[in-house]
Amino acid sequence: MPKRAATAKSEEVTVEGIFGPGGMLAKRHATYEFRPSQLAMARLVTDAFEKHQHAVIEAGTGTGKTLAYLIPAIRSGRRVVVSTATKSLQEQLFQKDVPFLQKHFAPNLKAALMKGRANFLCRQKVNQIEGQPVLRGIDEIDWFAQIRDWSKQTETGDRSELNFLPDDAELWNRIDARSDLCTGQKCAEFQRCFITAMHQRAEEADLIIVNHHLFFADLAIRHDDFGSILPEYSAVVFDEAHEIEDVASDYFGRQLSSYRFEELGRDAENLLRVLHIEAAPLRKHVARLRERARSFFERFPEREGRYPFGPAERSAFLDQNREAYDDLAASIKSVEAELSALSPKPEEVIALARRASEMRRELAFLLESEEKFYVYWYERRGRGVFLAATPIDLSQILREQLFERFDTVVLTSATLAVEGKFEYLKQRLGVMPANETVLPQEFDYRSQVLLYIPRGIPDVRQPSFAAGAAQEITRLLEISQGRAFCLFTSYAQMKDVFERVSGRLTFPMLLQGTAPRSVLLDRFRSTPNAVLFATASFWQGVDVPGAQLSCVIIDKLPFAVPSDPIVAARVRALMDDGRNAFAEYQVPEAVLALKQGFGRLIRSRADRGILSILDNRIQRMQYGKIFLESLPAYTVTQDLGDVARFMESHPQ
Description:
Number of domains: 4
Structural class: alpha/beta
Radius of gyration: 27 Å
CATH architecture of the largest domain: 3-Layer(aba) Sandwich
Oligomer: single chain
């Protein structure tokens, strides 16, 4: 790919001249602090771009890693994709960091923000719905009127601009731009389409900002030779790279859910209505499909959770439910045939028939395939049942499709290394030879943090542990005056301890599950002395700087549930290969999770606080050393008096 003149590197200015004391950043950034680790990271990323190498960089909180990879990226003269873990981080890069760079470093920089299609409005669907009796209730009528007016003004069509539309508004599912009913260039609105505009901006951009989900959706499509979502690029930076394996597993796997059948039926009925197609036989087959799908998925046990669905389990399931399965397969084939037989056949109908065909093939694969590359499982979550096949080992796929295909891949996060090494990450992701660095921490953790591991608490495997944990948490919260996250490895344990603690203290207590995640976080930030009880979803991506969060308590070392089908299959694969799955997979995964959980506490040089792990295996068991040696150099105590003295000496 040729050099892109708009962001060609200025030979006169060195990396030190930008990031060093008295450099360009010092003169142009209002909150600049010289950070040796930021300068070191910028050098490493610059080398990766110039020498066409891969790089793996652990950069702790406070490094300033965003500018440390963005500035070398735009100086490289190459088209670079930056992939983040979340849409909110994407938007922060695009709305805050990119304008800063355009103002001070690269006035001709062209950047594009790309998200999945479901984030954007479909103009054609709005046109089809307008004037039709398909809106449900006063709220939908009002929302639709506001969306219609907004569609005439917005440049992006991005749902994030709609601050009045609730997250769970079902209306959006009927008017978004997901590909299920998209007719592409044959659509009357193609030239004005928000997806078309997004792709055009990306084609012209030097810097393309995506999230991991979109990146791996694109990579999986390229893998199957089905085209691409992103334009051609030669380098990629992964921020929060510790999440790559989980996200990539979804996109290189196969999945089908009860919701997909409901959506297919609903979309077919809505399409016939807005296109004024009578098609009585098709309506009958669609109604039968919805009925048979409900009957089929009701055959799965009602217990919530994820369970194995390998060859033995599927064989037993089909022995008992063969008729329901055959009826569903026949029903979706009938809908597909009826859609294909319609004449005339609008493009939307062709797209719907294609979707029915894909679902029929996925259903057959998930119930009948014996490919050993995958682990098969099902999950009941609320009203939905999900069937899935997940790759057991992604390393070969990612080596071939990512690290061999692109000559510069930069992986960075605050949590990539175990005992200062990257062996776990490299094995899981198939990382090719790379420059590997754990950068020095920018914070003085020894003085800013006290790590408390209680001495007399029962073993986590004992029934008495919950009572002991509640007692320790109560004492810690009294010392910290609330202002704490209590993080748990299981939902049941969280609720049990919450009930034991909440009656003993007067601090405002927030419990995961009682409100949406974003609402709970806003309440925590705005409520003095609040305490939040939560599970894994709050272990990462949560930022509460300052005294409002002064204590983080974790109940157990966060080992993955060994009975989880994916974990069990990966453990078994390593053992079959003669390797130590506990040492090579389960411990390193738990170490990185613990580092994420503890990372919630210290977000600036001014932060002070208490970290506590209530699981005394971290000191009793041999593997506990690996956890302790992988954490920053905290001051450690087993004396609750030390905790009280620390908080008294660091009033906030």
